[in-house]
Recover the amino acids of this structure.
């Protein structure tokens, strides 16, 4: 195997700290020195640059495709189309419906049509313009609700425009109640906006195979899809993770994987592909926009009687994670509340809008915004305190959720809300204001007149790990050996560190389980078993479990070698149960390493009943709650989030500092969705594919946060952990939206809340 | 075109530079200094921030030809040998680095702020770093890191 000259690094910084402590990242020093090799930093002698030609139309038939003029450009080494896909020109995460390169039809603006390789990125870009494509433009399908019900629309895929329909019926679906509130809620299309661009380097090998170094979330699923398109056996398509600049779900679907390998195999030279920001907006899937119809019924004293909802998720051109979004969206549709009766329907559809797939909080973000808006509406109708209403209905251990599944682990929902309620509110503004703290900030036009304050809550439940019967596992190989007179552990998994801190955690587990200080984390690659995806808040749980299992297998092999099974590994020694150190690990190991590979599989889950939606679909839940305080300038429609507090149960804080960091970062993304982040799509076309026009929160937008972390161990999970990454993103958005409503008294049935929604100057469609 | 430039105190020369190339491309692809990051190449995110004659600038917005005879200092030039600059140390210690893609730009911008003001207030830190996007951290630990670095002076 030929590694690139600038290649991914093993991480062996020796920083002490086991489980429950907060050791520093082993990649921290490399990152602050600028020496950490991200996928866009890779370099290989003789490499070419790949580029992609994309469709300008959301829906069109390709009538002519001529690559000859591009091939004639000096410096261009290959131009490839669908005809050149060596294997099957179709891939997909759940359904196989996405062409690697469009053949006769394009279904979204930005769909890849041709690729080429040249010796300078600018030549590559210029040469793209020489490829001739003629289109017969077709009417785009853009209304998801119509796509779900109107079978007279043209079919975007052979089976029609419905990706998945799921119904959930609980108790008496036609129950009635004293107090009823209803609403229609919409959520815009959010983007993951990770900073590191999609990129990778494909290096052809002499054996007809290819090595791909890349930023991704799940090496093995990329490997399977890429090998199939290349028509190669798995072992000839080897993937190695290089530095990932954030992911948030946006790297679950393929981007340049197949393309860069095709170009490398055709030219016989290493090919690097790096998307620019414009292309990144077109090259990855986004969060599903949704339209949601909700009705809540409650008794006079505030107990929920029923929830009825219809949820429409716009999946865009290809299925991607839409089936899962419908599954999560419906099964989590009533939130962390006890609801005896429910009738829920969810539709995921194909349209000619940009493809939507995984993003942090998958499928739970949309309904949480809707049901938390409803909870405030219900509180108002009942003249109750919104936090008290939530506490009254909060699920707890022993509750049964909407699919009939028993919650057989701690679920401290009411406590989370109470803790937020008990936190101090910011002081009321009196006297002169620092205008930098006002909505609009330093470029303000207010000195406090027209500014009103509001407080809002948001609470969520998110399933952790994959659901509905998937055997979602991870593999870890751990070796213990003597290097330089010291026992050193090497941990090797295929799990993707995307910034969340997984490498630190792997070291913590190995240090704790094996009683050693030095732990090296091997570069993640496909030469070790599948680790599943860095998504669904599952890596600490599942890969953490695999590393634990492998470490324990190593420890028992060491004990066997020593000939006693009543000893533990601690402080580099074998220690008897009375605490006596018997022998050093170095002596037991000698020259012979101990190596073990183990998997971790979570508890079995089951598919939902297609008729009733009942079933034990989920492994575990994460719970979080936010309280937001906002100032709103009602004249200008500007919002300033003054305070954003979060309480979350994490089961066990494996690395407390990293947990808090995840909560802060997730909350920022939730804030973004509440007040600024939206990909604007009109007639299937994206109107703001840049960081100039797609706004993400800056340091000026984020308030200080109070973070309260609970640790109610889950008896079914390794170390009691509960997934951490997603919940804070989900509950921040409705907390802020509810606070803006509380401040203004406006209905605000849509996020992000834009200035025109507050000032009432919205352009009518 | 040929470009002569001093980078991190060393004289460097690049040949066959195309007129449209940015300083960022020159650094990353011709001079082997990929520390400055290519997150947007539109001047919007600050990830590519470098010192250009002691003033922070977005390297993606500067044409390579414009740096002829000038001095550039990148994230790779902040540490002295094995000794990290206090701002680098503080980012590591405070957990201000997650994916780290925003980090090089933030380090240069924060370094400049501390050089200029010594002990910046929170409002000054927020103002100075407002042009540097970070998608992972929520910024709180970045604020902590800048405060810590300032206190180390
Ligand atoms: S890469 Fe230069 S500002 Fe974003
Ligand atoms: S740490 Fe990932 S963008 Fe800042």
């Amino acid at each position: 195997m030929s590694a690139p000259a600038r290649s991914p690094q093993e991480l062996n910084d020796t920083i002490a700290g086991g489980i429950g402590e907060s050791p520093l990242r082993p990649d921290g020093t490399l990152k602050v020195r600028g020496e950490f090799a991200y996928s866009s930093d890779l370099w290989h002698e003789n490499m070419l640059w790949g580029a992609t030609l994309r469709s300008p139309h959301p829906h069109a038939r390709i009538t002519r495709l001529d690559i000859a003029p591009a091939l004639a450009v000096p410096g261009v080494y290959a131009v490839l189309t669908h005809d050149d896909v060596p294997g099957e020109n179709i891939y997909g995460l759940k359904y196989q419906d996405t062409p690697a390169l469009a053949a006769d039809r394009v279904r979204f603006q930005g769909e890849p049509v041709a690729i080429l390789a040249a010796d300078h990125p600018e030549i590559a870009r210029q040469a793209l313009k020489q490829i001739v494509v003629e289109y017969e433009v077709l009417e785009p399908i853009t209304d998801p609700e119509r796509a779900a019900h109107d079978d007279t629309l043209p079919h975007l895929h052979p089976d029609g425009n419905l990706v998945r329909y799921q119904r959930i019926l609980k108790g008496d679906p036609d129950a009635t109640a004293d107090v009823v509130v209803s609403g229609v809620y919409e959520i815009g299309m959010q983007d993951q906006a990770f900073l590191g661009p999609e990129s990778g380097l494909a290096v052809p090998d002499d054996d007809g195979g290819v090595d791909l170094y890349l930023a991704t979330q799940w090496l093995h699923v990329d490997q399977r899809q890429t090998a199939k398109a290349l028509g190669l056996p798995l072992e000839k398509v080897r993937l190695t993770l290089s530095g990932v600049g954030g992911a948030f779900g946006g790297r679950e679907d393929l981007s340049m994987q197949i393309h860069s390998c095709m170009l490398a195999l055709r030219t016989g030279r290493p090919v690097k592909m790096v998307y620019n920001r414009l292309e990144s907006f077109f090259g990855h899937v986004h969060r599903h926009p949704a339209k949601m119809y909700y009705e809540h019924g409650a008794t006079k004293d505030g107990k929920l009687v029923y929830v009825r909802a219809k949820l429409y998720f716009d999946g865009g051109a290809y299925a991607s994670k839409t089936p899962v979004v419908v599954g999560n969206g419906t099964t989590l549709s009533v939130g962390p509340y006890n609801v005896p009766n429910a009738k829920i329907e969810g539709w995921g559809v194909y349209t000619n809008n940009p493809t939507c797939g995984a993003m942090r909080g998958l499928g739970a973000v949309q309904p949480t915004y809707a049901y938390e808006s409803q909870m405030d509406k219900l509180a108002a109708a009942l003249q109750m305190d919104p936090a008290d209403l939530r506490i009254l209905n909060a699920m707890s251990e022993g509750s049964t959720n909407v699919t009939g599944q028993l919650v057989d682990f701690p679920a401290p929902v009411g406590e989370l809300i109470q803790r937020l309620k008990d936190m101090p509110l910011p002081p009321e503004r009196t006297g002169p204001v620092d205008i930098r703290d006002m909505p609009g900030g330093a470029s303000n036009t207010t000195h406090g007149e027209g500014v009103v304050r509001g407080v809002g809550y948001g609470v969520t439940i998110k399933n952790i790990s994959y659901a509905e019967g998937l055997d979602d596992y991870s593999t870890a190989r751990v070796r213990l050996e003597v290097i330089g007179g010291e026992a050193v552990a090497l941990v090797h998994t295929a799990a993707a560190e995307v910034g969340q801190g997984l490498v630190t955690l792997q070291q913590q587990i190995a240090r704790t389980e094996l009683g050693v200080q030095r732990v090296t984390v091997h570069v993640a690659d496909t030469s070790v078993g599948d680790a599943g995806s860095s998504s669904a808040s599952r890596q600490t749980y599942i890969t953490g479990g695999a590393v634990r299992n492998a470490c324990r297998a190593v420890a028992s092999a060491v004990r066997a070698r020593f000939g006693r099974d009543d000893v533990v590994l601690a402080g580099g020694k074998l220690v008897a149960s009375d605490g006596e150190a018997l022998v050093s690990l170095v002596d037991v190991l000698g020259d012979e390493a101990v190596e073990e590979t183990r998997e971790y599989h979570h508890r079995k889950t089951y598919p939902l009943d297609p008729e009733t939606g009942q079933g034990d679909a989920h492994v575990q839940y994460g719970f979080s709650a936010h309280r937001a305080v906002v100032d709103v300038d009602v004249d200008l429609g500007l919002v300033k989030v003054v305070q954003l507090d979060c309480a979350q149960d994490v089961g066990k804080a494996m690395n407390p500092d990293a947990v808090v960091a995840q909560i802060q970062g997730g909350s920022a993304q939730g804030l973004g969705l509440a007040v600024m982040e939206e990909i604007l799509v009109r007639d299937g076309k994206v109107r703001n594919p840049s960081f100039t026009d797609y706004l993400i929160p800056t340091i000026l937008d984020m308030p200080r946060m109070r973070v309260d972390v609970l640790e109610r161990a889950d008896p079914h999970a390794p170390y009691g952990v509960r997934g951490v990454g997603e919940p804070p993103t989900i509950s921040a958005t409705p907390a802020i939206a509810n606070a803006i409503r509380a401040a203004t008294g406006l209905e605000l049935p849509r996020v992000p809340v834009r200035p025109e929604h507050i000032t009432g100057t919205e352009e009518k469609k | 075109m040929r470009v002569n430039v001093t980078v991190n105190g060393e004289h460097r020369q690049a040949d066959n530079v195309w007129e449209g190339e940015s300083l960022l491309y020159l650094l990353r692809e011709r001079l082997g200094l990929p520390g400055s990051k290519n997150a947007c190449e539109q001047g919007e995110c600050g990830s590519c921030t470098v010192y250009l004659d002691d003033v922070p600038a977005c390297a993606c917005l500067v044409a390579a030809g414009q740096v002829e005879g000038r001095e550039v200092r990148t994230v790779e030039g902040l540490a002295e040998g094995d000794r990290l600059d206090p701002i680098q140390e503080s980012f590591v210690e405070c957990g201000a680095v997650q994916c780290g893609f925003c980090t090089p730009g933030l380090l240069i911008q924060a370094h400049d702020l501390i050089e200029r003001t010594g002990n910046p207030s929170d409002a000054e830190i927020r103002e100075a770093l407002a042009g540097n996007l970070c998608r992972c951290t929520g910024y709180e630990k970045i604020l902590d890191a800048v405060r810590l670095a300032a206190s180390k002076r």
User: Anything to note?
Assistant: Chain A has a mean pLDDT of 94. The CA atoms of residues 81 and 113 of chain A lie 7 Å apart. The two ends of chain A are 57 Å apart (CA to CA).
